[in-house]
Design brief:
Blueprint lengths: L14 H20 L7 H8 L3 H12 L3 H19 E2 L2 H7 L5 H12 L3 H8 L7 E2 H8 L20
Parallel strand pairs: 1-2
Helix pairs in contact: 1-2, 2-3, 4-7
C-alpha cells in the first residue's frame, strides 16, 4: 500500500483501487469533453463514473480542483472564445452553439473567465488572424442549433437514381 491522497480515496487505499477511481472519473470527464455542447444531466455524467451524483461531485472536485459544472462551463467558454475569434456569428448564436440556454448566464460566466464581455473579446481579438468564417459554414459544421429538429428526408421513388 502507498500512502497518498487522491480525491475522496483513502490514503491507505491500494494503488490499483486509486487508479480505478481515477479511471472512472476520467470516463465521466471524457463524456463531458465529448458532449460539451449538449445539455448534460449530472446524474448521467456521474453514471459514466459509476457514482451517485453527490459522491461524483465531491470526487471530481477533489481530483480536478473544480466541480463538474465549473469544468463544463470553462470548456464551453473556451469553445466560445474560439468561435468569437473565428466565426461570423452573433453572440446569441455562439451562446446557443456552445451549450448555454441563457444569454445572461453565458455573458456573466464569459466575463468572469476572460474579464471581457463576449463583444469586447471579439473586438479585441478579431483581425489578428485569418478572416472570419461565414456564419452559415460555422453553423453547418456545428450541425445547426442544438434541439432543433432537421426536416424529414424527402421520400423518393425507388426508380430515381442517386
Amino acid at each position: 500500500m502507498v500512502r497518498a491522497s487522491i480525491g475522496c480515496v483513502e490514503s491507505t487505499t491500494p494503488a490499483p483501487a486509486r487508479l480505478a477511481h481515477l479511471r472512472q472519473l476520467r470516463l465521466a470527464k471524457d463524456a463531458m469533453d465529448r458532449d460539451w455542447a449538449e445539455p448534460l444531466d449530472l446524474d448521467a455524467v456521474a453514471a459514466h463514473a459509476g457514482y451517485s451524483r453527490f459522491h461524483f461531485v465531491r470526487a471530481f472536485k477533489a481530483v480536478y480542483g473544480q466541480t463538474p459544472g465549473q469544468y463544463l462551463s470553462r470548456r464551453r467558454i473556451e469553445r466560445a472564445e474560439e468561435l468569437l475569434r473565428s466565426a461570423n456569428l452573433s453572440v446569441t448564436e455562439i451562446c446557443t452553439l456552445v451549450g448555454f440556454s441563457s444569454l445572461g448566464t453565458f455573458s456573466t460566466r464569459f466575463k468572469k473567465q476572460t474579464r471581457l464581455t463576449p463583444s469586447e473579446y471579439r473586438a479585441q481579438h478579431v483581425g489578428r488572424g485569418a478572416a472570419l468564417i461565414p456564419g452559415c459554414y460555422a453553423l453547418l459544421w456545428a450541425g445547426g442549433f442544438p434541439g432543433k429538429e432537421k426536416p424529414p428526408a424527402k421520400q423518393r421513388n425507388s426508380e430515381e437514381a442517386d
